[in-house]
Amino acid sequence: TFTPRVFSGIKPSGGLTMGNYLGAIKRFVGMQGDMQTIYCVVDMHAITVWQDPAELAKATREVAAGYLASGLDPAQSILFNQSAVAAHAELGWIFNCVARVGWMNRMTQFKDKAGANAEKVSLGLYAYPALMAADILLYHATHVPVGEDQKQHVELTRDIGKKFNHDFKTDFFPETIPVIDGPATRVMNLRDGTKKMSKSGESDMERINMTDDADQIAKKFKKARTDPDALPDTMEGLKDRPEAKNLVEIYAALDDRSPDDVIAEYAGAGWGKFKPALADLAVAKLSPISTEMARLMDDPAEIDRILANGAVKAREIAEPILQQTYDIVGL
Ligand code: ADP
Ligand code: NA
């Protein structure tokens, strides 16, 4: 049996969005204290697509600042960047040799990201879910909080761990559970309720950035696309209204309530009432975080120090697990 342990990470590949906050970071904070929690800035995943080196370093600090400003506490959680712990790459290679090409070919995110360009993308982009499995299993993590878009990759992690255990007749790696709960595991963008809010969203009005100030947050919510109808009294009534459903779910996540509870409160209300209320709520919850992020980003040396301390603690867990893996494999 394995001690419950949480691992998750975010790529430093451009600015953090409210999708990353509600779907990941806020939930990371919620798990702090319940179990040992390890949160990584996965910079080696970021370079699966081209990153300007200076921007990458800045984006790494921005993810760390987002973690800290949202309430992750280096005294309670291990916070570090992936490239500082070489064991990730080493176990990643072993898992490249465990995972099957057919498994990778089924990864829908690769198909979406590579599209018609699949011959021209990096080999790393194709292989990254095996590195993600290494990130998780290097700590014998049992729980991985992620947004819905990462579910398939966490399931692949289970498959890789199982195949390793089977091939080497061991029970060395745990079965990892994806933790995908709450109302905001798939936040859509504000202009098109069918597209995920993403760091690479096409226009700035589509996404809320974690660095947006109060005015930007309010303006974007007030301009969010909606439909002409008033709000129904149950979530069921929103099933064919993606923009409306998204806004109610965002409200619920920001206010730590269920969508059912929010829709019951606003039943019959028009957008003229709901959108300003949502904008006020979002400003109240998000702008203190962006203010704190700006303060932290003014002192990059302090962020680097926190990440370096976290890497020391991460290595203490990771290195013995890597050594045992090498022994099992015969390396
Ligand atoms: P992105 O998808 O923004 O490039 P990552 O791939 O680094 O970010 O994802 C980091 C975490 O944030 C993952 O757990 C992912 O599922 C979550 N996440 C990203 N976008 C959203 C979203 N729009 N809604 C909910 N969770 C999200
Ligand atoms: Na993602």
TrEMBL record:
SUPFAM superfamilies for this protein: Nucleotidylyl transferase
Reaction it catalyzes: tRNA(Trp) + L-tryptophan + ATP = L-tryptophyl-tRNA(Trp) + AMP + diphosphate + H(+)
Record lineage: Bacteria, Pseudomonadati, Pseudomonadota, Alphaproteobacteria, Rhodobacterales
Name the record gives this protein: Tryptophan--tRNA ligase
Family affiliation: Belongs to the class-I aminoacyl-tRNA synthetase family.
Pfam families per UniProt: tRNA-synt_1b
NCBIfam families linked to this entry: trpS
Family matches, as CDD domains: TrpRS_core (cd00806)
